[in-house]
Design goal:
The protein has four domains: 19-77, no CATH class; 86-143, no CATH class; 150-204, no CATH class; 211-343, VSR Endonuclease (Endonuclease, Chain A, 3-Layer(aba) Sandwich), CATH 3.40.960.10. It is built from 14 helices and 14 strands. It has helices at 11-14, 21-31, 63-68, 73-84, 88-98, 130-134, 140-143, 150-160, 192-196, 211-224, 256-259, 263-275, 308-321, 331-361; strands at 35-37, 48-52, 57-61, 102-104, 117-119, 125-126, 164-166, 177-181, 187-190, 229-232, 240-244, 249-255, 279-285, 298-301. Helix 10 (211-224) packs across helix 13 and helix 10 (211-224) packs across helix 14 (331-361).
């Protein structure tokens, strides 16, 4: 189904916004002022010519790639040489500013040689590449990305969830297995990864949050310096996942598999918000190959945004859509990730207490 943009008197809202050459140049200048654009910008995937003012080096790339990696290969080589020349003390001091929960117990050789580390939070020891540590990839146990066994899956589910029973055979973190909702009795397939990260049965939608929603709420609260109204039903007569009154911004992240049959309802929400001067951003994650939503305030993401890396990528794209300054370091994202994990645990614990009280009442 092709959705049309909501009615508005503003010409920019009446059609899909196409990035101009000036807007693209401003984005690049904010990321790396040493890059000069030599050829006209046309589309995100049409190659352009660039020049590095530092090395006087010219190369050709796509605007998408340049936004993701705003530097020339000579600058990258300089960075790698600097990393190889780094001492043990310099590496440990730098890592301490990025992730103080990681203790280095091995010897630093270079950015690509694995180094032994220990998580101060959970005690887990592993040997990642230093470049990954400096990029913000912390303890895989705390992040929930460590390879799971069936025994570990059952142990973690027992500790955090009571709304699902695993029925099928466990093969790997990303291979779907059959689960049954303890509330409605419906059986369906879900990956263990989504199960551990708070994905809910449709009968429980709106009763508590997913980690994706919690992360977005925490990130925007940090960036906007405003606490959102969560799951408000009074403003437009329909529930909004998060609303920031001072900035007149609302955001609704949701799984594509659940929202693909509710596109008309989601469009009505955006229209109702626009009538009240509120911009509603709808985010669909897990929308693999889907290009059916044609609206400048809709973001379709192929990833299911389960890992911390994918959540951070989603957060950056949402901030970009809202025209907000993106964080220059990982502190903001890491803080939002940590708060989201605490928030989802509290939601699950509260849901379990409700279930227990209902059982006692029966």
């Amino acid at each position: 189904m092709l959705l049309q943009p909501s009615d508005s008197n503003c010409p920019a809202e009446a059609s899909n916004h196409k990035k101009t050459a000036e807007e693209f140049a401003a984005q690049i200048a904010s990321l790396n002022p040493n890059i000069e654009i030599l050829s006209p910008y046309k589309t995100a995937r049409k190659p352009i010519r660039c020049r590095c003012r530092v090395h006087d080096f010219e190369w050709e790339t796509t605007p998408d790639s340049l936004l993701s990696h705003p530097r020339c290969r000579l600058c990258v080589n300089d960075k790698l040489r600097a990393e190889r020349a780094r001492s043990q003390e310099e590496f440990c001091a730098l890592l301490e500013t990025i992730d103080p929960e990681i203790e280095v117990i091995g010897r630093y050789v270079n950015s690509s040689t694995p180094i032994a580390c220990r998580c101060r939070k959970c005690g887990y020891e592993w040997a990642p590449q230093p470049v990954n540590l400096l990029a913000g990839y912390g303890c895989p146990v705390c992040a929930g990305t460590k390879r799971l066994t069936r025994k570990e899956l059952n142990r973690r589910l027992k500790a955090i969830r009571s709304d699902f029973v695993v029925m099928g055979k466990y093969r790997s973190r990303k291979k779907k297995l059959t689960v049954q909702c303890t509330h409605c009795g419906r059986s369906f397939e879900m990956t263990p990864e989504n199960l551990l990260h708070g994905t809910r049965c449709s009968c429980q939608q709106g009763r508590h949050s997913s980690t994706q929603e919690e992360f977005v709420a925490e990130l925007l609260e940090i960036v906007l310096q405003e606490k959102p109204l969560r799951h408000d039903r009074q403003l437009i007569g329909m529930e909004l996942d998060m609303f920031f009154p001072e900035h007149k911004i609302a955001v609704e992240p949701g799984a594509w598999y659940y929202h693909q049959d509710k596109l008309d309802s989601d469009q009505e929400k955006r229209k109702a918000c626009a009538e009240r001067g509120i911009r509603l951003i709808t985010v669909y994650y897990g929308a693999k190959g889907e290009r059916s939503v044609n609206d400048k305030d809709v973001l379709c993401i192929e990833s299911e945004c389960v890992t911390d890396r994918d959540k951070v990528s989603m957060g950056k794209r949402i901030l970009n859509m809202l025209g907000l300054t993106r964080p220059t370091d990982t502190d903001c994202m890491q803080e939002a990730l940590a708060k989201a994990k605490v928030g989802i645990q509290e939601c699950t614990r509260d849901r379990r207490h409700v279930d227990e009280r209902q059982s006692e009442g029966e």
